[in-house]
Write a structure and sequence with these properties.
With 299 residues, the protein is mainly β. The chain has one domain (8-297): Distorted Sandwich (Beta-galactosidase, Chain A, domain 5). 4% of the residues lie in helices and 43% in strands. It has helices spanning 124-127, 248-254, and strands at residues 15-19, 25-30, 34-39, 44-50, 77-78, 103-110, 113-121, 135-143, 146-155, 161-163, 165-167, 170-172, 180-182, 188-191, 197-200, 205-206, 211-215, 222-225, 231-237, 241-246, 266-273, 279-281, 286-297. Strands 6-7-8-9-23-19-18-13-16 form a 9-stranded antiparallel sheet, with no helix packed on it. Strands 5, 11, 12, 14, 15, 17, 20 and 21 form an 8-stranded antiparallel sheet that branches. It is globular, with a radius of gyration of 18 Å. Bound molecules: 6-O-phosphono-beta-D-tagatofuranose. 6-O-phosphono-beta-D-tagatofuranose is lined by residues 70, 76, 83, 93-94, 168, 192, 212, 243, 245, 268, 270. 6-O-phosphono-beta-D-tagatofuranose (TA6) binds at residues 70, 76, 83, 93-94, 168, 192, 212, 243, 245, 268, 270.
């Protein structure tokens, strides 16, 4: 059964479908335990703030809000490939999902959370892409004192398919130079900045230069501890890859939608299934990647 777009008049009181930056439609959630903004463009979460706390998700002040470009910051959805497409150099980095317009198909209040679901399915454009398969994607964002993101992909094709996915989360930090990512101690990683060499962490991930690391076969919880005393814990289900990224000075300056001085205020800790961890689905099968964020110390 294909869910129909929800009638805006039927939305619960804590959910509004409005016009956001760049004239793009945005779902604004004002729940009892947290607030958030979720653009239909790319199903892109651009903010999450627990009630009484500070924003947890980072968004560039220089982000463009146009249909032709992914929003910079927030939680881009990388699907159905991660990074450059291996066969089509003209294909958009990180797949087509973050550039597509998703539909709002459900919104409901649960306990102290508010759950909003967006949907994307194959189209003539996706069927003409480097990944031409029939599929349905449902993305449920649950906003409360914590944040839950669940991406379900269903194979609607007649053949088995495989794909990569990442919830490419940009987290706000006080200063990247006083920040560490725990939970990856002793983990091997692909260093994207050193000819994909395989290296191993010797402790928490700390930052003193551009950092771009892919951890495979890793599903343990991680956490971001910044100098303000805030800890954001990150737990996942059905996610076997992690990516950690900070662009540092030169890469930040090279991106037109990223403020030159913004690199100190963010870190990407991404929950994914990439490379050898890609997902394989038989016809009719579904897979859900879930990530949950909790602020365990406000600071
Ligand atoms: O996840 C890290 C990464 O793959 C980096 O290599 C960098 O390219 C980043 O994603 C941002 O990619 P984007 O296409 O959003 O500029």
């Amino acid at each position: 059964m294909i869910p129909a777009p929800i009638d805006p008049a039927a939305l619960p009181a804590s959910v509004r479908l409005e016009t956001g930056d760049g004239g793009l439609p945005v779902v604004r959630v004002a729940g009892p335990a947290g607030s958030a903004e979720l653009y239909l463009h790319g199903a892109h979460l651009t903010s999450w703030t627990p009630t009484g706390g500070r924003p947890v998700i980072w968004l560039s002040a220089a982000s463009l809000f146009t249909e032709a470009k992914a929003i910079r910051g927030g939680v881009p959805i990388c699907f159905p490939w991660f990074g450059a497409n291996p066969t089509d150099p003209a294909a958009p980095a990180h797949g087509f999902a973050r550039l597509a317009e998703w539909e709002l198909v459900d919104a409901r209040e649960e306990h102290d959370g508010v759950a909003v679901t967006l949907r994307l399915a194959d189209s003539p454009a996706t069927r003409a892409s480097a990944w031409p398969h029939r599929f349905e994607a449902l993305y449920t964002v649950t906003v409360g004192a914590g944040l839950s993101l669940a991406l379900t992909i269903t194979n609607r094709d007649t053949d088995a398919v495989s794909y990569e996915e990442a919830l490419h989360t940009y987290l706000a930090v006080d200063d990247i130079r006083d920040t560490e990512v725990t939970g990856l101690e002793s983990a091997p990683f692909i260093n994207q900045l050193a000819a994909m060499s395989i290296e191993t962490e010797t402790g928490p991930v700390r930052f003193a230069a551009e950092t771009d690391r892919i951890y495979l076969d890793h599903n343990a919880a991680t956490a971001v501890v910044d100098g303000s005393g805030r800890t954001v814990s990150i737990s996942t289900d059905e996610s076997n890859s992690r990516i950690v990224w900070n662009p540092w000075i030169a890469k930040a300056a090279s991106m037109g939608d990223f403020g030159d001085d913004e690199w100190t205020r963010m870190v990407c800790v991404e929950s994914a299934n990439v490379r050898e961890n890609r997902v394989r689905l038989n016809p009719g099968q579904s897979h859900t990647l879930t990530v949950v964020f909790d602020v365990t110390a406000q600071g």
